[in-house]
Design brief:
The protein is mostly helical. It contains seven helices and two strands, in the order H-H-E-E-H-H-H-H-H. Helix 3 packs antiparallel against helix 5 and helix 6 runs antiparallel to helix 7. The longest helix has 28 residues.
Amino acid sequence: MAWLNYCDTQQLLPAALCAAAMHELGHCAAIWAVNGRITLLRLSAVGAELRLEGTLSYSQELICALAGPIVNLVMACCSACAGWEVFAGINLALCVLNLLPISALDGGRIVSCISAVFLGPEAGGRICSCMDCLFGVAMVLGGAVLFLGGGSITLLLVAVWLLGKRIETMLFTD
């Protein structure tokens, strides 16, 4: 985190942390609204991980997964109306990134819930695995092109982290 703050010449880190905190609060509020109980909140440089006691129904999980991106979308709209374009952009970027259909992100949970309802849990799992590979590789390639073209390394780092999460899941899940 200190390294990010040091490299943050545009002073975006406080706004990004605020947007991320609001995103996670959206998830927490939705979990509490469906009578879920959070047993773990782990923060890292790339986001937060929430663990729940028991399981949620597919519709409850869908609501909880959508809550974070919806909060960011509302924050983006309100910020844009208030003339805070940078904060609006950060919230919109966080919303869009989290809606990508990758298992470690909200979009992956959304795809998993919807596909499990219509196709069954096993077929839903296969669909999510394919989406993870497709979007993970696309993000790594896009991040590499962006970085090698003189842009930011952030997308590449996030993509590598997401692929690492997928590999971890494949290796350590029954």
